[in-house]
Amino acid sequence: MEPDERRDLAAMLYPLVRALIEVEMPVLATQDVSMWGYSVLAALDRTPIRTQAALAEAIGADKTRIIGTLDALQEAGLISRTPDPDDRRARLLAITDEGRRVRRSVTADIRAREERLLATLPAADRRGFLRALTALSALPPGELEEIAAGPVSGSPRSPA
Amino acid sequence: MEPDERRDLAAMLYPLVRALIEVEMPVLATQDVSMWGYSVLAALDRTPIRTQAALAEAIGADKTRIIGTLDALQEAGLISRTPDPDDRRARLLAITDEGRRVRRSVTADIRAREERLLATLPAADRRGFLRALTALSALPPGELEEIAAGPVSGSPRSPA
DNA sequence: TATTGTTATACTCTATAACTATA
DNA sequence: TATAGTTATAGAGTATAACAATA
Protein backbone atom coordinates (compact mmCIF):
# COMPACT_ATOMS: atom_id res chain seq x y z
CA MET A 1 0.00 0.00 0.00
CA GLU A 2 1.17 3.54 -0.68
CA PRO A 3 -0.84 5.73 1.70
CA ASP A 4 1.09 8.89 0.83
CA GLU A 5 0.26 9.10 -2.83
CA ARG A 6 -1.74 12.24 -2.45
CA ARG A 7 -1.42 15.83 -3.56
CA ASP A 8 -0.51 18.67 -1.22
CA LEU A 9 -3.30 19.79 1.05
CA ALA A 10 -3.24 23.33 -0.28
CA ALA A 11 -3.32 22.05 -3.87
CA MET A 12 -6.52 20.17 -3.11
CA LEU A 13 -8.09 22.73 -0.81
CA TYR A 14 -7.50 25.82 -2.91
CA PRO A 15 -9.72 24.81 -5.86
CA LEU A 16 -12.25 23.44 -3.38
CA VAL A 17 -12.75 26.75 -1.60
CA ARG A 18 -12.95 28.55 -4.93
CA ALA A 19 -15.73 26.19 -5.96
CA LEU A 20 -17.52 26.56 -2.62
CA ILE A 21 -17.41 30.33 -2.96
CA GLU A 22 -18.92 29.95 -6.45
CA VAL A 23 -21.69 27.98 -4.82
CA GLU A 24 -22.32 30.68 -2.21
CA MET A 25 -22.33 33.61 -4.61
CA PRO A 26 -25.82 33.17 -6.10
CA VAL A 27 -27.26 32.56 -2.63
CA LEU A 28 -25.75 35.79 -1.32
CA ALA A 29 -26.99 37.62 -4.40
CA THR A 30 -30.60 36.71 -3.64
CA GLN A 31 -30.32 38.59 -0.34
CA ASP A 32 -28.12 41.37 -1.70
CA VAL A 33 -25.21 40.79 0.63
CA SER A 34 -21.54 40.42 -0.18
CA MET A 35 -19.30 37.64 1.05
CA TRP A 36 -17.75 39.86 3.71
CA GLY A 37 -21.18 41.25 4.56
CA TYR A 38 -22.39 37.74 5.26
CA SER A 39 -19.27 37.07 7.32
CA VAL A 40 -20.00 40.17 9.41
CA LEU A 41 -23.64 39.16 9.92
CA ALA A 42 -22.59 35.69 11.03
CA ALA A 43 -20.10 37.11 13.53
CA LEU A 44 -22.57 39.63 14.96
CA ASP A 45 -25.28 36.96 15.15
CA ARG A 46 -23.05 35.08 17.55
CA THR A 47 -22.39 38.13 19.72
CA PRO A 48 -22.38 41.96 19.51
CA ILE A 49 -18.95 43.54 19.27
CA ARG A 50 -17.72 46.81 20.71
CA THR A 51 -15.28 48.03 18.04
CA GLN A 52 -14.83 47.67 14.31
CA ALA A 53 -11.22 46.65 14.76
CA ALA A 54 -12.28 43.74 16.98
CA LEU A 55 -14.87 42.68 14.42
CA ALA A 56 -12.30 42.81 11.64
CA GLU A 57 -9.94 40.66 13.66
CA ALA A 58 -12.73 38.20 14.45
CA ILE A 59 -13.47 37.55 10.80
CA GLY A 60 -9.85 37.59 9.68
CA ALA A 61 -10.04 40.87 7.81
CA ASP A 62 -8.48 44.30 8.08
CA LYS A 63 -10.19 47.21 9.86
CA THR A 64 -9.83 49.39 6.77
CA ARG A 65 -11.28 46.72 4.54
CA ILE A 66 -14.63 46.21 6.23
CA ILE A 67 -15.71 49.86 6.35
CA GLY A 68 -17.48 49.80 3.01
CA THR A 69 -19.08 46.53 4.01
CA LEU A 70 -20.38 48.01 7.27
CA ASP A 71 -21.67 51.07 5.42
CA ALA A 72 -23.67 48.85 3.08
CA LEU A 73 -25.02 46.66 5.87
CA GLN A 74 -26.09 49.67 7.92
CA GLU A 75 -27.64 51.33 4.87
CA ALA A 76 -29.64 48.13 4.29
CA GLY A 77 -30.73 48.08 7.93
CA LEU A 78 -29.03 44.77 8.65
CA ILE A 79 -26.73 46.05 11.40
CA SER A 80 -26.73 48.95 13.86
CA ARG A 81 -23.62 51.02 14.41
CA THR A 82 -23.93 53.46 17.30
CA PRO A 83 -21.20 55.49 19.00
CA ASP A 84 -20.35 54.16 22.46
CA PRO A 85 -21.55 56.79 25.01
CA ASP A 86 -18.63 55.87 27.27
CA ASP A 87 -16.03 56.30 24.51
CA ARG A 88 -17.32 58.16 21.54
CA ARG A 89 -14.45 56.95 19.35
CA ALA A 90 -15.83 53.40 19.37
CA ARG A 91 -18.86 52.13 17.44
CA LEU A 92 -21.08 49.54 19.11
CA LEU A 93 -21.94 46.93 16.52
CA ALA A 94 -25.00 44.70 16.58
CA ILE A 95 -27.14 42.76 14.14
CA THR A 96 -30.76 43.84 13.62
CA ASP A 97 -33.81 41.60 13.43
CA GLU A 98 -33.82 42.01 9.67
CA GLY A 99 -30.12 41.21 9.58
CA ARG A 100 -30.77 38.08 11.57
CA ARG A 101 -33.49 37.07 9.14
CA VAL A 102 -31.19 37.55 6.14
CA ARG A 103 -28.37 35.70 7.84
CA ARG A 104 -30.56 32.73 8.77
CA SER A 105 -31.98 32.55 5.26
CA VAL A 106 -28.56 32.57 3.62
CA THR A 107 -27.16 30.03 6.05
CA ALA A 108 -30.08 27.65 5.54
CA ASP A 109 -29.69 27.81 1.76
CA ILE A 110 -25.93 27.34 1.86
CA ARG A 111 -26.26 24.50 4.35
CA ALA A 112 -28.69 22.69 2.06
CA ARG A 113 -26.25 22.94 -0.85
CA GLU A 114 -23.37 21.77 1.30
CA GLU A 115 -25.36 18.78 2.51
CA ARG A 116 -25.98 17.71 -1.09
CA LEU A 117 -22.23 17.78 -1.60
CA LEU A 118 -21.42 15.93 1.60
CA ALA A 119 -24.06 13.34 0.79
CA THR A 120 -21.84 12.09 -2.04
CA LEU A 121 -19.27 10.98 0.55
CA PRO A 122 -19.29 7.79 2.64
CA ALA A 123 -20.76 8.56 6.08
CA ALA A 124 -17.51 7.82 7.91
CA ASP A 125 -15.48 10.10 5.64
CA ARG A 126 -18.07 12.84 5.93
CA ARG A 127 -17.94 12.71 9.73
CA GLY A 128 -14.15 12.64 9.79
CA PHE A 129 -13.96 15.48 7.31
CA LEU A 130 -16.24 17.72 9.36
CA ARG A 131 -14.57 16.85 12.63
CA ALA A 132 -11.08 17.43 11.27
CA LEU A 133 -12.14 20.67 9.63
CA THR A 134 -13.78 21.92 12.81
CA ALA A 135 -10.68 21.09 14.85
CA LEU A 136 -8.23 22.70 12.41
CA SER A 137 -10.28 25.86 11.99
CA ALA A 138 -10.67 26.20 15.76
CA LEU A 139 -6.92 26.65 16.22
CA PRO A 140 -5.98 30.15 17.38
CA PRO A 141 -4.33 32.33 14.71
CA GLY A 142 -0.74 31.33 14.06
CA GLU A 143 -1.03 28.06 15.95
CA LEU A 144 -1.36 25.97 12.79
CA GLU A 145 1.79 27.47 11.33
CA GLU A 146 3.66 26.75 14.55
CA ILE A 147 2.58 23.12 14.64
CA ALA A 148 3.58 22.69 11.01
CA ALA A 149 6.97 24.29 11.64
CA GLY A 150 7.68 21.56 14.16
CA PRO A 151 9.27 21.46 17.59
CA VAL A 152 11.90 24.10 18.29
CA SER A 153 15.22 23.43 19.96
CA GLY A 154 16.29 25.60 22.87
CA SER A 155 14.35 27.01 25.80
CA PRO A 156 10.79 28.00 24.79
CA ARG A 157 10.48 30.75 27.42
CA SER A 158 12.00 34.19 27.95
CA PRO A 159 13.52 34.68 24.48
CA ALA A 160 15.36 37.81 25.61
CA MET B 1 -28.05 16.15 19.71
CA GLU B 2 -27.53 19.05 17.30
CA PRO B 3 -25.19 17.69 14.60
CA ASP B 4 -25.54 20.79 12.44
CA GLU B 5 -24.07 23.34 14.78
CA ARG B 6 -21.14 24.08 12.55
CA ARG B 7 -19.93 27.00 10.50
CA ASP B 8 -20.13 27.14 6.72
CA LEU B 9 -17.58 25.02 4.93
CA ALA B 10 -16.11 27.99 3.09
CA ALA B 11 -15.87 29.96 6.35
CA MET B 12 -13.77 27.19 7.86
CA LEU B 13 -11.79 26.30 4.75
CA TYR B 14 -10.84 29.79 3.65
CA PRO B 15 -8.66 30.64 6.67
CA LEU B 16 -7.29 27.10 6.58
CA VAL B 17 -5.92 27.40 3.05
CA ARG B 18 -4.49 30.81 3.83
CA ALA B 19 -2.64 29.28 6.77
CA LEU B 20 -1.46 26.33 4.67
CA ILE B 21 -0.12 28.70 2.04
CA GLU B 22 1.72 30.56 4.79
CA VAL B 23 3.26 27.24 5.73
CA GLU B 24 4.35 26.54 2.15
CA MET B 25 5.85 29.95 1.48
CA PRO B 26 9.14 29.56 3.38
CA VAL B 27 9.63 26.10 1.88
CA LEU B 28 9.19 27.43 -1.64
CA ALA B 29 11.52 30.32 -0.85
CA THR B 30 14.36 27.94 0.01
CA GLN B 31 14.21 26.59 -3.55
CA ASP B 32 13.45 29.95 -5.17
CA VAL B 33 10.16 28.93 -6.74
CA SER B 34 6.81 30.65 -6.59
CA MET B 35 3.53 29.01 -5.69
CA TRP B 36 2.46 28.79 -9.32
CA GLY B 37 5.94 27.69 -10.30
CA TYR B 38 5.67 24.79 -7.90
CA SER B 39 2.23 24.00 -9.24
CA VAL B 40 3.65 23.85 -12.77
CA LEU B 41 6.53 21.61 -11.69
CA ALA B 42 4.11 19.24 -9.97
CA ALA B 43 1.92 19.03 -13.07
CA LEU B 44 4.86 18.45 -15.44
CA ASP B 45 6.33 15.88 -13.07
CA ARG B 46 3.19 13.83 -13.58
CA THR B 47 3.32 14.11 -17.37
CA PRO B 48 4.76 16.37 -20.11
CA ILE B 49 2.24 18.66 -21.78
CA ARG B 50 2.06 19.81 -25.36
CA THR B 51 0.71 23.37 -25.06
CA GLN B 52 0.83 26.14 -22.48
CA ALA B 53 -2.94 26.54 -22.61
CA ALA B 54 -3.39 22.89 -21.65
CA LEU B 55 -0.98 23.31 -18.77
CA ALA B 56 -2.79 26.39 -17.56
CA GLU B 57 -6.08 24.53 -17.65
CA ALA B 58 -4.57 21.58 -15.80
CA ILE B 59 -3.50 23.72 -12.85
CA GLY B 60 -6.62 25.88 -12.83
CA ALA B 61 -4.92 29.02 -14.07
CA ASP B 62 -5.13 31.26 -17.12
CA LYS B 63 -2.84 30.89 -20.13
CA THR B 64 -1.84 34.54 -19.91
CA ARG B 65 -1.09 34.25 -16.21
CA ILE B 66 1.51 31.50 -16.31
CA ILE B 67 3.79 33.03 -18.92
CA GLY B 68 5.93 34.87 -16.44
CA THR B 69 6.04 31.74 -14.31
CA LEU B 70 7.22 29.65 -17.27
CA ASP B 71 9.84 32.27 -18.16
CA ALA B 72 11.26 32.08 -14.64
CA LEU B 73 11.22 28.29 -14.53
CA GLN B 74 12.94 28.03 -17.90
CA GLU B 75 15.48 30.66 -16.93
CA ALA B 76 16.25 28.62 -13.80
CA GLY B 77 16.62 25.46 -15.87
CA LEU B 78 13.72 23.71 -14.15
CA ILE B 79 11.62 23.16 -17.27
CA SER B 80 12.25 22.90 -21.00
CA ARG B 81 10.06 24.76 -23.46
CA THR B 82 10.74 23.79 -27.08
CA PRO B 83 8.67 24.62 -30.18
CA ASP B 84 6.82 21.58 -31.51
CA PRO B 85 8.42 20.67 -34.89
CA ASP B 86 5.01 19.47 -36.13
CA ASP B 87 3.24 22.71 -35.17
CA ARG B 88 5.59 25.54 -34.51
CA ARG B 89 2.91 27.54 -32.72
CA ALA B 90 2.93 25.10 -29.80
CA ARG B 91 5.60 24.80 -27.08
CA LEU B 92 6.38 21.32 -25.80
CA LEU B 93 6.68 21.53 -22.02
CA ALA B 94 8.66 19.15 -19.84
CA ILE B 95 10.32 19.15 -16.45
CA THR B 96 14.13 18.84 -16.29
CA ASP B 97 16.12 16.65 -13.94
CA GLU B 98 16.93 19.70 -11.87
CA GLY B 99 13.26 20.66 -11.86
CA ARG B 100 12.39 17.20 -10.64
CA ARG B 101 14.92 17.50 -7.85
CA VAL B 102 13.51 20.85 -6.73
CA ARG B 103 9.96 19.56 -6.92
CA ARG B 104 10.73 16.43 -4.88
CA SER B 105 12.57 18.47 -2.26
CA VAL B 106 9.72 20.94 -1.85
CA THR B 107 7.09 18.21 -1.73
CA ALA B 108 8.99 16.24 0.91
CA ASP B 109 9.36 19.30 3.12
CA ILE B 110 5.72 20.32 2.74
CA ARG B 111 4.57 16.78 3.36
CA ALA B 112 6.53 16.62 6.62
CA ARG B 113 4.90 19.82 7.82
CA GLU B 114 1.45 18.62 6.83
CA GLU B 115 1.97 15.35 8.67
CA ARG B 116 2.78 17.23 11.88
CA LEU B 117 -0.53 19.02 11.48
CA LEU B 118 -2.52 15.90 10.70
CA ALA B 119 -0.89 14.12 13.63
CA THR B 120 -2.89 16.36 15.97
CA LEU B 121 -6.11 14.75 14.71
CA PRO B 122 -7.61 11.44 15.78
CA ALA B 123 -6.61 8.74 13.29
CA ALA B 124 -10.17 8.13 12.11
CA ASP B 125 -10.79 11.83 11.47
CA ARG B 126 -7.47 12.17 9.68
CA ARG B 127 -8.31 9.29 7.37
CA GLY B 128 -11.80 10.59 6.69
CA PHE B 129 -10.49 14.08 6.08
CA LEU B 130 -7.95 12.93 3.51
CA ARG B 131 -10.38 10.59 1.80
CA ALA B 132 -13.13 13.22 1.59
CA LEU B 133 -10.69 15.83 0.38
CA THR B 134 -9.30 13.53 -2.28
CA ALA B 135 -12.79 12.67 -3.50
CA LEU B 136 -14.02 16.28 -3.59
CA SER B 137 -10.92 17.59 -5.35
CA ALA B 138 -11.11 14.79 -7.92
CA LEU B 139 -14.45 16.06 -9.21
CA PRO B 140 -14.24 17.45 -12.74
CA PRO B 141 -14.48 21.26 -13.01
CA GLY B 142 -18.01 22.51 -12.46
CA GLU B 143 -19.28 19.19 -11.14
CA LEU B 144 -19.17 20.30 -7.52
CA GLU B 145 -21.24 23.37 -8.28
CA GLU B 146 -23.79 21.24 -10.09
CA ILE B 147 -24.15 18.78 -7.25
CA ALA B 148 -24.57 21.63 -4.78
CA ALA B 149 -27.19 23.28 -6.98
CA GLY B 150 -29.29 20.15 -6.65
CA PRO B 151 -31.36 18.05 -9.05
CA VAL B 152 -32.92 19.91 -11.95
CA SER B 153 -36.48 19.43 -13.12
CA GLY B 154 -37.12 18.75 -16.79
CA SER B 155 -35.35 16.55 -19.31
CA PRO B 156 -31.58 16.53 -18.73
CA ARG B 157 -30.69 15.93 -22.40
CA SER B 158 -30.91 17.93 -25.62
CA PRO B 159 -31.51 21.39 -24.11
CA ALA B 160 -32.28 22.93 -27.49
C1' DT C 1 -10.07 32.01 -40.87
C1' DA C 2 -8.58 29.72 -36.57
C1' DT C 3 -5.15 28.79 -33.03
C1' DT C 4 -0.78 29.38 -29.90
C1' DG C 5 1.64 32.23 -27.44
C1' DT C 6 2.39 36.97 -26.08
C1' DT C 7 1.67 41.74 -24.60
C1' DA C 8 -1.23 45.53 -22.92
C1' DT C 9 -4.91 47.13 -20.24
C1' DA C 10 -8.16 47.30 -16.73
C1' DC C 11 -10.31 45.66 -12.68
C1' DT C 12 -10.57 43.57 -8.05
C1' DC C 13 -8.64 42.65 -3.68
C1' DT C 14 -5.67 43.69 -0.28
C1' DA C 15 -2.04 46.19 2.45
C1' DT C 16 0.13 50.54 4.11
C1' DA C 17 0.19 55.10 5.35
C1' DA C 18 -1.83 59.42 6.39
C1' DC C 19 -5.66 61.99 8.47
C1' DT C 20 -9.81 63.16 12.05
C1' DA C 21 -11.92 62.91 16.24
C1' DT C 22 -11.95 61.56 20.55
C1' DA C 23 -9.50 60.20 24.87
C1' DT D 1 0.38 60.74 23.30
C1' DA D 2 -2.38 57.14 22.06
C1' DT D 3 -6.51 54.92 20.02
C1' DA D 4 -10.97 54.13 16.82
C1' DG D 5 -12.44 55.04 12.69
C1' DT D 6 -11.84 56.86 8.09
C1' DT D 7 -9.76 58.07 3.68
C1' DA D 8 -6.12 57.87 0.14
C1' DT D 9 -2.59 55.54 -2.14
C1' DA D 10 -0.18 51.85 -3.91
C1' DG D 11 0.69 47.07 -4.70
C1' DA D 12 -0.42 42.14 -5.92
C1' DG D 13 -3.27 39.07 -8.39
C1' DT D 14 -6.42 38.25 -11.87
C1' DA D 15 -9.31 38.79 -16.10
C1' DT D 16 -10.17 40.69 -20.81
C1' DA D 17 -8.82 42.33 -25.13
C1' DA D 18 -5.72 43.07 -28.76
C1' DC D 19 -1.63 41.49 -31.36
C1' DA D 20 2.10 38.56 -33.98
C1' DA D 21 3.28 34.12 -35.73
C1' DT D 22 1.85 29.92 -37.60
C1' DA D 23 -1.47 26.71 -39.40
UniProtKB/TrEMBL annotation, chains A, B:
InterPro entries: HTH_MarR-typ, MarR/SlyA-like, WH-like_DNA-bd_sf, WH_DNA-bd_sf. Residues 6-138 form the HTH marR-type domain. SMART domains: HTH_MARR. One of its GO terms (biological process) is response to stress. GO terms for molecular function: DNA binding; DNA-binding transcription factor activity. Keywords: DNA-binding. This is DNA-binding transcriptional regulator, MarR family.
